[in-house]
Amino acid sequence: MKISVLTLGCKVNKYESDALIFELKNRGFDAGDKLEFADAYIINTCAVTNEAEKKSRQMIERARKFNKDAKIFVMGCASQNRPCQFEEKGVNFVIGTAGKKKLLDELENLGRKLFDLPTVYEDDLFSAQTLSRAFIKIQDGCNNFCSYCIIPYLRGRSRSRSVESVVDEVKRLPENVNEIVLVGIDVSSFEVDGQKGLATLLEKLDCFGKRLRLSSMEDNLVDEAFLQRLKNLKNFCPHFHLSLQSGSDGVLKKMNRKYTTARFLDSVNLIRKYFPFAGITTDVIVGFPTETEQQFEETCEFVQKVKFSQLHIFPYSQRSGTVASKLYQDLSGKVKAERLKKLEEIGNKMKLDFISKNKFGKVLIEEENNGLFEGYTENYIKCYCKGQAKVGDVVEVEIDKPYKQGALCNIVKS
Question: What is the torsion angle, in degrees rounded to the nearest 10, for the CA atoms of residue 77, residue 79, residue 80 and residue 81?
Fold first, then answer.
């Protein structure tokens, strides 16, 4: 039986889908992640925005174009949020965000099972890593309850994987894996024995000699002690994806983000004290319901003050069930689009400025396309490299000029 596992959304979903594929193969199935002919499709959905849910539903029809008689199983955040939207499309089985391994026991069944959201980390699925960068899930759930976000209601409260389990998975990584990316719904909340434990985990992993990267983090983790421990690591990649969401204190308060712009800037300056050439990327939401034109301008001014290396910008998406959807009237799509375009222009300029300040770097080669080797520097510049290398190598490069989504580089040492 051929099964295709199709993924929408975040790196956590990707890890979980890869883990399902690994488990399916262990059970004797022909499993993969391509949208192609299959006897059954497992669709791992996303609910972070209305558009993400729409794409999750559309994936059902895309799969049926390859095999109209295939069985279709749905799981993930969108099905946890509104399982009926998939049942109406005639899928075979629906679960939510919990009990994903149990879905594999239902491949011959029909219906719906929404398991209770767990209070401890579900440590029953492991991904088989085949690429030069390995995503390792260390945490699930979120306690922040930002007013715009539905995810804490769908994933449950924060819960951490044990250090021993993470280390055990890293020990099994193939030799060609030369970078580990730690992923989770809220990586900053990772705990060891009830205390902040992210630095402890990184210290345990540093001895494996592979580059270590954090997928994201929150402002509340940044302090002198944490950064000093990161500085002492041999293999830490100085790239900090520090979520901002808005550069207006008034909007941040309505979003229930638990910091001010002043504190956020202090955190950035502290990072640069320890890592002067760090890549600092962020997420920004434009068009939050209460965001005035003046508050949007405050965001534009603040991101330029911070000098991010890259912006990830999203128009606000109203999610039923969140505090913001109950209290505030949504802004027009036109206003959101105009603000998105303006902030994208600012973000593109900052990205080019950051690239121009970097002359050399070490790049992990992830793939080769049209004679150029592609990968990222430690501080997260996408590089297109000329020279001799092979996938999985970490090479030293000289950065030439901006190119496509990053920079054109020359390999100076393999």
Answer: 90
* Dist CA 67 CA 75 (whole Å): 20
Compute the distance between CA of residue 195 and CA of residue 300 in angstroms, rounded to an integer: 36
Residues 51, 8: contact at Cβ < 8 Å?
Answer: no
Count CB atoms within 10 A of the CB of residue 129: 21
Which H/E stretch holds residue 343?
helix 333-356
Which regions of the chain carry the CATH code 3.80.30.20? 133-356
pTM: 0.92
Is residue 110 over pLDDT 70?
A: no
The alpha carbon dihedral of 183, 186, 188, 194 has a sign of negative
Closest CA to 269 of 225, 227, 234: 227
Give DSSP secondary structure letters for 390-401: -TT-EEEEEEEE
Which residue spans of the chain are classified as CATH 3.40.50.2300?
Answer: 2-112
Is residue 281 within 8 Å of 312, Cβ to Cβ? Answer: yes
Domain 133-356 superfamily per CATH: tm_1862 like domain (3.80.30.20)
* Interatomic CA distance for residues 57 and 70, integer angstroms: 16
Q: What are phi and psi of 206, to 5 degrees?
A: -60, -30
Domain boundaries 2-112, corresponding CATH code:
3.40.50.2300
Query: From start to end of 209-315, where are the E strands?
Result: 211-214, 239-241, 279-286, 310-315
Q: Where in the chain is the domain with CATH 2.40.50.140?
A: 360-413
| pLDDT tens figures, 151-200 | 999 999 999 999 999 999 999 999 889 999 999 999 999 999 999 999 99
Architecture of domain 360-413: Beta Barrel (2.40)
